[in-house]
Every structure is written in structure tokens, then in C-alpha cells.
């Protein structure tokens, strides 16, 4: 009857809201543990808690070519004279720029060996330098 129909709608919109909240968390949260681990210069330790994109990034990092490394060194200004130094074992790699300290969106772009390149969003300078594989 009519009551059943209304109840069904209420339930559907509740489910929809839950799904949206989950999607939002997945979109805004995934990179923080990785960048914290990198800032400490260590191996990610909270892998147990990692899910989704986080896990993919950690697996890629362990695969040693490190394509998703989130690199946000504080010792470089990111200007033309003082670009962010990005170590790489190949002549190109993907760089994730957080642009601003509390930004939840990461700007990904390819960085090639040679001239320094700029983040397409905030204009920070990045320079790729040769880097030996850690043993
Ligand atoms: Zn940027």
C-alpha cells in the first residue's frame, strides 16, 4: 500500500546518503598516511589499516619503481631557483603535488628528467634527479 511505498523511499535515500558519505571519505582521505610515512623517511607502518587507493599506492611503492610516491619536501621552496627535488630511478615519474598544506586534492603530473617542471595547478617547480634503488 501507500505506507510501504513511503518506507521504501526513506530507506533508499538513507542508503544513498551512506554511500555518498563513504565515497566522500574515500576521495578526500587516501593519501595522508602515505605522505606521513614518507615525511618520516620510513616504510609505511599502518598498512594494516590501508584500504582502496591507499593500498594500491603502498603496493606500488613496494614494487620499487614508486610511481605514486607523494613527495612534499619542506626543505625546498618550489621556486624556479629552488625547485622540489624528486628522486627517480628512471628518467620520468609521476609527481603528486598537494599544492597547499591542507589541500585534500592531489594534482598528479609526469615529471621528466632535464629541465624542472611546474605543477599545472599551483606552479611549484619540480626537478627530477637520478636516484639509486634502495637495498
Ligand atoms: Zn601544486
Automatic annotation (TrEMBL):
- At which positions is Zn(2+) bound? 97, 99, 119, 122
Write out the GO cellular component annotations. Answer: mitochondrial inner membrane; respiratory chain complex IV
Query: Which GO annotations describe the biological process of this protein?
Result: mitochondrial electron transport, cytochrome c to oxygen
Q: Which residues cross the membrane?
A: none
Task: Give the matching SUPFAM superfamilies.
Answer: Rubredoxin-like (SSF57802)
The UniProt entry, under Pfam families, shows: COX5B
Instruction: Name the major location.
Output: mitochondrion
Molecular function GO terms recorded = metal ion binding
User: Superkingdom of the source?
Assistant: Eukaryota
Q: Which UniProt keywords are given for this protein, alphabetically ordered?
A: Acetylation, Membrane, Metal-binding, Mitochondrion, Mitochondrion inner membrane, Transit peptide, Zinc
N6-acetyllysine modification sites?
74, 92, 127
Where is the protein found, in the record's own terms? Answer: Mitochondrion inner membrane
Q: Which PANTHER family match?
A: CYTOCHROME C OXIDASE SUBUNIT 5B, MITOCHONDRIAL (PTHR10122:SF20)
| Protein name in the entry | Cytochrome c oxidase subunit 5B, mitochondrial
Organism of this sequence: Latimeria chalumnae
- Per UniProt, what is the name of the gene that codes for the protein in this document? ZGC:86599
Amino acid at each position: 500500500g501507500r505506507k510501504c511505498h513511503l518506507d521504501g523511499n526513506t530507506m533508499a535515500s538513507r542508503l544513498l546518503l551512506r554511500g555518498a558519505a563513504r565515497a566522500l571519505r574515500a576521495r578526500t582521505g587516501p593519501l595522508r598516511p602515505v605522505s606521513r610515512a614518507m615525511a618520516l623517511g620510513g616504510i609505511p607502518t599502518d598498512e594494516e589499516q590501508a584500504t582502496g587507493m591507499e593500498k594500491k599506492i603502498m603496493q606500488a611503492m613496494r614494487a620499487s619503481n614508486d610511481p605514486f610516491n607523494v613527495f612534499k619536501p619542506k626543505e625546498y621552496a618550489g621556486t624556479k631557483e629552488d625547485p622540489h627535488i624528486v628522486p627517480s630511478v628512471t628518467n620520468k615519474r609521476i609527481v603528486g603535488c598537494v599544492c597547499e598544506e591542507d589541500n585534500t586534492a592531489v594534482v598528479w603530473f609526469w615529471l621528466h628528467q632535464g629541465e624542472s617542471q611546474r605543477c599545472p595547478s599551483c606552479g611549484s617547480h619540480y626537478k627530477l634527479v637520478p636516484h639509486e634503488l634502495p637495498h
